[in-house]
Write a structure and sequence with these properties.
Elements lengths: L1 E2 L8 E4 L2 E11 L7 E8 L5 E7 L3 E4 L2 E12 L2 E6 L5 E5 L14 E7 L5 E5 L3 E9 L12 E6 L4 E5 L7 E5 L4 E6 L2
Antiparallel strand pairs: 1-6, 2-3, 2-6, 3-4, 4-5, 7-8, 7-10, 8-9, 10-11, 12-13, 12-15, 13-14, 15-16
Length: about 190
Amino acid sequence: MASTADIRNGLCIKYNHDIYKIIEFLHVKPGKGPAFVRTKLKSLTNGKVLDNTFSAGHKIDVVRVETQTFQYLYAEGTEYHFMNTETYEQITLNKDILDAPDLLKEGTLVMVQINTETDLPLSVDMPASIVLEVTYAEPGVKGNTATNATKPAKVETGASVNVPLFINEGDKIKIDTATGSYMERVKE
């Protein structure tokens, strides 16, 4: 058992007969009344996100997790196949458990959190950013550059990303996996 003082991003807890991962948290100490912790929890079974407030000192049931490196192999419908880089064991995960499945490129290394009690995968942590090639982009129109003009572009995984007007087909761009937004053009 842990208390609200142990809450941090990425912590997995048992709550309401389900396993949740803490996405965001904020310790609040109001001038009047007791302190509390405002959290945003993501269910690891169905992917739903809920807001919850724990009073200070509230006991929480922590789930022991182990993190292992897996390599993304391929997708088959809504099933995504991964291989453990140490044991070469393969696992299949549903699309719902992934944060940004449309940004996954074959060969990408991800961190999979596994429940040590049941040996079941709980969540997949993508790398902070990923480099993908632009496969389709409208040509930029001259004169449309008043303030941070963007256009939609398709990348090699099929995802659509808003990019600046100077990005063309064949360019490699770095994408933030947390927000799915353009970060910079990569020159190789």
